[in-house]
Amino acid sequence: MENLRLVLFLALGVVLMLIWSAWQQDYGTPPPQSTTEQAPAGSADDGASPAAPGAAAPAESTPSTAAPGSGAGEGDATTDTAAEARDVRVLTDLLDVTISTEGGTIVSARLRKHPVSNDNPEPFPLLHRNGDLFVAQSGLLGRDRPAPDHQAVYSAERTDYRLQEGDDEVVVALRWSSGDGLTVTKRYIFHRDSYEVDLEHRVANESGTPWQGYQYAQLRRTPPEEEGNILLIGARSYTGGVIYSPEEKYEKFGFDDMAETALNRDVRNGWVAMIQHYFLAAWIPPRDTTTRFYTRAAANSQYIIGLSSPWQTVQPGGSTVFNEKLFVGPKEQDRLEQVAQGLELTVDYGVLTFISGPLFWLLNLIHGVVGNWGWAIVLLTLGIKIVFYPLSETSYRSMAKMRKLQPKMQQLKERFGDDKQKMNQELMQLYQKEKINPLAGCLPILIQIPVFIALYWVLLESAELRAAPWILWIDDLSVRDPYFVLPLLMALSMFIQQRISPAPMDPIQQKVMMALPVVFGFFFLWFPAGLVLYWVVNNSLSILQQWLINRRMEAQGTK
Question: What is the pTM for the complete model shown?
């Protein structure tokens, strides 16, 4: 029994160390401020783009461009951006987007199917220019000739676009002209039932000289005042940049990483993103094209992650089209898998993804049948309990035998309490006589710990559970129980487990074990209701299982 308690304490320590390690890795130190002098925010050389891959770089680290608006005519850009820029609103079935004609930047994106909270039904603002900055910028940079970057001002035919009933897409076209024969049409294509937005830069060269340039697309944001949502006491979800490449897979680039080192890497078939709890925005280049991934720390505590296309040359009288795709929406795994390879990894389950992935698949399958995420958690917990029943039965049988030996063990303690070595010898003889292995109940518990941790991350990371109701007052499984009923039930279930389990012989251990329900109950006050629900159901099933095994063994003992 002493060994069993030791293993349980070690298991608890492992869980706490994993949580602490994950917190330290992402949030242990605040992002340092960049010590290098940065260009003013929004300037042409503020980290908009490095030299494009696949061609010789120009003399400057950022290709020089003529001042936007150097020519005349309809659609011409102008240097007076404050006077000319205006907003264009786009409304689809899933998105409410605002595009500024200054650079064609997406300055706001609200998710119509995802409220801020159950108390605030307003669409969740994922991209925003007010408060904490988070916008999606894109543009062109040319060699020795003008091109519309994210500061150029476009003209728009109208300021309101809506996805009409029966239509599958809505197209927003913005136009810019250099005045010397170069015309750029920037098109955003929004689709029904999709968080994907196609971006096109159509370049038409009617001048007498070739034009050479490339496209860049980037996400610019300031770190939120509270970096990430609270998951546990003292720990928060990750908010920052990530990239994916077939070689390195999923990599995080936090704001501190961007401040310390600027990333410049050529990648084929990858993507870049800024993620936060439950949501992300990602730029995805065309397949089988090598693009330059980059990060920058700009002025005013702004951080940039983006990508740039290869150089393209447009001959006089010719044209070309640059393409990118923007995903701006929730981390709904079924959607992410369809958008780009590896994008589902933004649902970060950590090192136990190989367990968490199948668990979420099963949870999603059950939800498809019952239609309620709370009952899906209950049924998944029941299923896990059934799968581990043989191992759990071995553990509980060992505990039941130990419980029957409690009087004899207490006698040994009274006789040899001052002689630990002698008492341990007598205990081993007693175990051999009764054919009991005190470690028999430990292995099943240790085997189940990785499954618990994996399910823990599933319930914390799955956007599907955000604002998902269960029953009665539990109207959001991703936040704490507002009345703390589930944490109290969890603490009560732990207390009952303590009562039906054999108590440790050491008085200090007895006090520690009796205090654990109170300690865990306190910590679980802030846990998401979905996770606490899992614990309550799991503990309740364990109590029922151990009670039945105890009754069965007692009945066998009376025969």
Answer: 0.77
